[in-house]
Structure formats: C-alpha cells, structure tokens
Amino acid sequence: MSVRASMEPVNHLPSHTRDGPPEKAPTDPGRGGGALERRRGAELTPAEKKVRRRNRQWFMVIAIPAAIVGVAALAASIIADRSTPSVKPLSVPAGYKPVSDGIFAYAVPSAWMTNDLYTDNVGDLDVSGGSGWVAEHVGTRANPPVEGEGPPPAFRAFGVNTPSSYRIGGAEPTRVPGTSVAFRYRVTRPDGFQATAVDAWVSSSEAEIWLLIDAAPATTTQILDTFRA
C-alpha cells in the first residue's frame, strides 16, 4: 500500500494555524485508494520482508528511543496483570473473532490474521485481511491525552511500504468502556486513503492505545462497538 505523495502530519491546531478549518470526525471511514497494497496475514513474500526490514530500521532510528520508558512501564503493567484474565471485547458478533493485547480488546472479521509486516514487540499490533485492517500502538503515560495530540510515529508506517506523512482531522470525544479518556479522529493521506483513529487512555494502568482502522464503514463500526479496556 505505497503512498506516492507526502505531506507533513497536521495535528489538531487552531484554525488560524492550519490550511482551512479543522476536519470533522468521520461518518464514513471508507477504504483506501487503489495505491494501497493488498494486505495479507500469511507468510511474507521476499518483497514484503524487505519492506518490514525497512520499517523496522526506521522505527529504531526515530520511534524506539522515545518509547523506551513507556514500553518498560507497559511491560511491568502487563506482567502484573497476568494473574487476572485478559480483557475481552464487549461482544464478538457472528463472523468476527476477539483480539486482545491484555489491556485493550476488540473484535475483527474472522478471516483477518496478524500481519507480521507491521507487528513488533514494542507495542505495535496489526490484524488484517482482504476487507481491511486494524493496527494499534500501545504505550504508557502518566497524564491523560488531550484533544489534538499527534499520533505515535508508528502511524507513519501502518499500511504503507515506506513511512509516509498523513493528515489528522479534528478530535471528537468518544466513549470507550473501561477507559478514562478517548478521542476519535479521521486520518487521510494524499492518495485518497481514509481511516478512523481512536486515542484512549486508562487512568488505573496509565496505558494508552492509538487504534487505526481502515475498513468499510460497517466493519469499522463493528470494531468500535466491541472496543474496550
């Protein structure tokens, strides 16, 4: 899913500092344009392995140093919670299956599989199939997020062969059961890509998730309706 054009990520800023008024939260997340690569959850091809190496190298240079403290705290939190059952989605509709990272959970279409191209051991998880994908980045923070904060660096790599710029619209407060604060955003790229993002935080564990969904509107709604902490 390569992106031919690029632009700097735009966070939710006052209208006088942006090109035009803030975007509204999406009512139709839609699917990406034809320039996006076909997702797969099976064995990687040589070309895909090359893309994964390139993405991992990029993460090591930019993302990993900034995330070391958060990842260490998150790991400690997960270890402390191992004695209790992992969180489960609010529901698992027919044709869907549960996905849980131990702190957050949601349901995805049964045919979707973990995509190693965008999944690592520093908080990133991707589950995808022919009808779309969902990717997450989990970390920790002591204070709750606020409207308009920028997504993690991983958002530049999710769904594309080479890390690419994107635009994020205005924040819309939303409800995610089990979380203390949550905001919903619309994410776009110049090639027509449109996706829905959610930033949610749990005060008790100080765990934060950024969830990015690229799927048809009905699928996106199902995933969000089952999303919880």
Number of helices: 2
Distance linking N and C termini: 30 Å
Mean pLDDT: 79
- Silhouette: globular
Count of folded domains:
1
Q: What proportion of the residues form beta strands (DSSP E)?
A: 15-25%
Helix content: 10-25%
List low-pLDDT spans.
Answer: 1-38, 78-83
Number of strands: 10
For the CA atoms, what is the radius of gyration? Answer: 17 Å
Structural class: alpha+beta
Main beta-sheet annotation = 8 strands, antiparallel
Compressed to H and E, one letter per element, the order equals HEEEEEEEEEEH
What does this structure look like?
The protein has 229 residues and is an alpha+beta fold. The protein has one domain (25-226). The protein is 20% helix and 25% strand. Strands 3, 4, 5, 6, 7, 8, 9 and 10 form an eight-stranded antiparallel β-sheet that branches. Strands 1-2 form a two-stranded antiparallel sheet. A hairpin with a 4-residue loop joins strand 1 and strand 2 (105-109).
Helices and strands in order:
Layout: H1 46-80, E1 96-100, E2 105-109, E3 113-114, E4 124-129, E5 132-140, E6 167-168, E7 172-173, E8 181-188, E9 194-202, E10 207-215, H2 217-226
Antiparallel strand pairs: 1-2, 3-4, 4-5, 5-10, 6-8, 7-8, 8-9, 9-10
Short synopsis of the structure:
With 229 residues, this protein is α+β, with helices and mostly antiparallel strands.
Describe this protein with a few key phrases.
25% strand, alpha+beta, single chain, globular, eight-stranded antiparallel beta sheet, 229 residues
